[in-house]
Amino acid sequence: MSAIRKILIANRGEIAVRIIRAARELGIQAVAVFSEADRDALFVRYADQAVCIGPPPAAESYLFYQNILAAAKSTGVDAIHPGYGFLAENASFAEACRAINVTFIGPTPQAIRKMGDKATAKRLMKEAGVPTVPGSEGVLDSLSAARTLAGEIGYPVVIKATAGGGGRGMRIVAGEKELENAFNSAVSEARQAFGDAGVYLEKFIENPKHIEIQVLGDKHGQAVHLFERDCSIQRRYQKLLEEAPSPVLDDDTRAAMGRIAVAAALAVRYDSAGTIEFIYDGNSNQFYFIEMNTRIQVEHPVTEMITGVDLVKAQILVATGEKLPLVQADVRKAGHAIECRINAEDPQKGFLPQTGTLRQYIVPGGPGVRVDAGVYPGCVIPPYYDSLLAKLVVWGETRKDAIARMKRALSEFIIEGVATTIPFHQKIIQHPEFHRGTYTTDFIRKITAAEGGGSC
Amino acid sequence: MLNRLFVQCPQCQTTHFISFFKSAHYVCSRCGHHSRLDPPRWIKQLCDRGTFHSLFANLKSLDPLGFPQYREKLEAAVRTASGWEAVVTGHAEIGGVKAALAIMDPGFIMASMGSVVGEKIARLLEYAAGHRLPVVMVICSGGARMQEGILSLMQMAKTAAAVRLLHGKRQPLITVLTDPTTGGVTASFAMLGDVSIAETGALIGFAGPRVIQQTIGQKLPPGFQTAEFLLEKGMLDIVVPRRNLRATLVTVLKIHQNRPYPVSWSGDE
Predict the structure, then answer these.
(1) By residue range, what is the domain housing residue A439?
(2) Is A99 touching B (CB cutoff 8 A)?
(3) A192 and B CB contact within 8 Å
(4) Does one domain contain both A441 and A354?
(5) Chain A contact for B49, CB < 8 A?
(6) Which chain A residues touch B266 with a CB distance below 8 Å?
(7) CA nearest A199 in B: which residue?
């Protein structure tokens, strides 16, 4: 495979800007594709070339791969970077890129397909010796099978859609009485939402931490891990704040998780940047595989801050067939990093997404502060896409330093024109449980309930 | 057309990459047009993996009337289609329920019904009656095969009688009407289903709209002969998009068997 000279970014917003930056530092030209709503967006300005690919709704632009492939051909790019979301984890899209002789910057279609189907992924991981949550082997086809299995592994259990994600099509069942209703509604919701009625059942781990391991593989059968990120601060399965390293993992567990994540990646011949997600039960010090994200992730900068590895650049380089720039022993971590997702959402109104014009936009700076954003003063936030405006990332020598720095940086961040999650992050960063680091995935629900902010 | 890397929707001309098209069940993501499928693709869509076994596959059409160019047409169809005739018959499991199955092949002389199609349908119904199996038929047809003249028309009575035999054994006929279901097939076994399911947007009728318009000299109502129109008039029980078809069949089959069925009962979305 030859070197990449020109790359098309099949995405928008901050991640498109992030990829353009990596491309530029590698001496690669960047082509942006944009919808009519993003004509004046920052990533369009930054790109060397930009092609309009359709009307504002994502289905007619950022998901309408036909126009993206046509733009790739007409601009003569060598590769397509899908970013995250949209077509990033679509095996068919990766195949289509290949069919028109354009490198897809991401894993092989086979790896995407295997990891994209939760039941297949779980089976493969089990075979590779990765601990998984006790539960059904593949799809459950009847209520009686569900009842038998739930009896064996013990309540509480959770029923999930095979094709689901982000908490959709999911039912937590506390006891046998609730099983029948939960099973039937999960099946019909799965069918309605995903066109696939397949569901599976597993043990429900109460109040876990969400800890994920960054991995990086190449086309020569090598893979390394770049430590973990603690992403337990979530609202309705959407991550709000991430940090690395996790404040609760001991070195042995960290090393074990890393080793297992690399084994997991090698099991599907993973040859790009990816993330193995685990749930971690602090009480038993046990961790279980939940899924693999076969793309660059929103929160990748915290890993970059503690390891000094530019993941997007590495992802581009391994896509051309280059060997990994480092072996496991070279991967070191230093200090502590925290990321706050600054969303155009009003925490006062149940995190309702906001649209409008950014009248004021002043970014924090100073030592150890990084802002990855897709916006600029005066730009318009359209209503069609996700609400992420910017990622505020800080680094500190210790976790305490990082928290103090985040507190300072948040106070410098001034956005007017739309409500943002900045005030909410200020609350999180000052919360004693956050300082202790023992928070779990129900942290946001607990603190909003304590405030009486009911709609969370 | 489905063997190429990129395919074009015949209705809206949108180009689709084959693997996207496959995962959308060969339905256009833009306009919702349901492409016609051959029997192997239907088997993949509907049956539990590896459970299909073919029956009566060796029956081949002759040319009883010496109809001009019929032999050539048959030979060409055998070369391009997936079987020896315009219907594939067999048995399979659908959601764990064993059923007899007939799938018509639009790639074989527009799935027209000659003696062999009629015979295979009738034998399948007899087989199902004998083995007490429910029958699922995926139907599509241009109608009776004109090259076999009156022998084709006779298949209408024969297949209808065979449905009666099945009913005598208290087994259901579940028909899935796909685009287009017309002529002598509509006028016989296609309309005898105990549960009549149709795919979204399918054209279902006896004579085509043009013929009717010219015969009665009146303008036809909008949506005439579409699955949705027929559902509204009470001619069908369920109209589903293809992605929900398998789940719907599983539900119908399990209800009939009085087995627990996971899917809430809603044919329409």
Answers:
(1) 209-451
(2) yes
(3) yes
(4) yes
(5) no
(6) 188
(7) B262
pLDDT over 90 (residue A278): yes
Chain A: give the shortest CA distance to residue B226, in Å.
23
Q: Could you say which of B14, B19, B247 has the minimum Cβ distance to residue A95?
A: B19
CB-nearest to B20 from A92, A142, A143 is: A92
pLDDT digits 0-9 by tens, A375-387: 999 999 999 999 9
Residue A314 has pLDDT above 50, yes or no: yes
| Residue A113 located in a structural domain | no
Q: Is the minimum CB–CB distance between B265 and chain A shorter than 8 Å?
A: no
What whole-number percentage of chain A has pLDDT above 90?
Answer: 83
Q: Are strands B97-104 and B87-94 parallel, antiparallel or unpaired?
A: antiparallel
Residue of A nearest to B262 (CA): A184
Distance set, CA A279 to CA A174, A232, A433 (Å): 19, 9, 19
Q: Is residue A126 in a domain?
A: no
The mean pLDDT value of chain A amounts to 93
pLDDT of A26 over the 90 cut: yes
Determine the pLDDT at residue A453. Answer: 52
Confidence label for B268 from pLDDT (cuts 50, 70 and 90): very low
Residues in chain B closer than 8 A to A91 (CB atoms):
19
Q: How far is A35 from chain B (nearest CA, A)?
A: 17
SS3 label, residue A348:
helix
Work out the mean pLDDT of chain B and round it to a whole number.
93
The DSSP bridge partners found for residue B203 are B226
CB pairs under 8 A between A and B: 50
User: Does residue A264 share a domain with residue A172?
Assistant: no
Active site residues of A: 295
- Contact between A314 and A273 under an 8 Å Cβ cutoff? The reply is yes
Same domain? A234 vs A261 = yes
**For chain A, what is the domain count?**
3
Interchain CB contact of A143 with B (< 8 Å): yes
Same domain, A422 and A444: yes
HEC string of B250-262? HHHHHHHCCCCCC
d(CA A399, CA A70): 47
Query: CB neighbours of A232 closer than 8 A, spacing ≥ 6?
Result: A208, A209, A210, A211, A439, A440, A441, A443
Q: What is the mean pLDDT of residues B103-117?
A: 97
Instruction: In chain B, list all ranges with CATH 3.90.226.10.
Output: 36-256
Class of B36-256 per CATH? Answer: alpha beta
For this complex, say whether ipTM is above 0.85. Answer: no
Instruction: Note the pLDDT tens digit of each residue in B36-86.
Output: 999 999 999 999 999 999 999 999 999 999 999 999 999 999 999 988 999
